[in-house]
Structure prediction request, 290 residues.
Amino acid sequence: MLEQSSERVFASILGAHQISARVTDNITYCGKWIEREPQVPRGIFHLISAGSCRVEGHDLPQPINLASGDLIVFPRGSAHTLCHELRADGGTPADTGMLCGEFTCADRNPVLDALPDCFVVREQEGEGHFRALGQVLAAEAQRPLFGNQAVMNKLADSLLSLAIRCHVASAFPGHGLLAALRDPRLSRALAAMHDDPGRDWSVAELAQTANLSRTAFCERFAETLGLAPMQYLTEWRMTEALRLLRDPAQSVARIAERLGYQTEAAFRRAFKRVHGYGPGKVRQDAAGAD
Prediction:
C-alpha cells in the first residue's frame, strides 16, 4: 500500500501528462494461431477477455502465459509475438478473446519513463476491475452505436491508469521515480514540491519534510532519482508550465509568478533550458490544435 503522499505525486503526474489510450482491435482467435507485433513508436496493451495465450519477446526473460482477465503492457511499443497457449497433449486450444490498444502521451511522462519495457498485471491484482472493464469494452466493440469509439477510448484510459497504479503499488525497483514513490521519506518531499511548486523551497525545508538531515536527504534523493532536489523541482515546475501555457486565459507573466519566478524573463530562460524551446511555441501549438 502506497502512502498518501505517494498517491498525490502519482495523481499529479498523471494529471499533468495526459495519457491518451484507444482500443484498436477486439479479436477472437480460434484453434492454433500466431500474431507477430512489430516495434512501434507508442505504447501497446493487450487484455485477455476470454481463454488464454502465450507471449514472447526480447524484453521478456521467458515466455509468459496469460489467462482471462490478465493485461500485458509494452510502454515503449516493443516487438513481441502472441500465440495460442501450448498444450501438453498437443490438442486444439480453446478460443482466445483479446482487446488490443495503444496509448501515447503528448509530453515526456516520468511515470511512463520509469516503467519497464513490459509488465503484466494479473486479474487478481486488478481485483476483477480488468475483467469488468474488458466486458464493457467488448460489449461496446460489438455494438455499432453512436459514440462507442469515444466511450471505448475513455474506458481504455481508465484501464491503463489502473494497470499503472497496480504495477507501481507492487513493483520494487531500486532506482527511479517508482522507487522514490515507495520511499516514505522521499515521497513526502516529492508531494510537498508537487502540491506547491511555486513556493520558494530550500533544500533544508525539503529535508525537514522528509525527516532527514540535509546531507542524508540530498544523497538519498540523488541516489534514487538520479538528480538533485532543486533540479527535480525545476523540472516539475516546467512540467506544470506546459499544462498552464495551453490555457490561453493564463498569461506568461502570471504563470511565471505562480511557479515561483520573480520575473518573466527568468521563467522563460528556465523553460527553454528544460524543454529546448520557448513558451511561445506551446502557445502556438495549442492554438493550432484548437
Observations:
- The mean pLDDT is 88.
- The first helix runs from residue 4 to 16.
- The two ends are 40 Å apart (CA to CA).
- The domain at 4-170 is CATH 2.60.120.280 (Jelly Rolls).
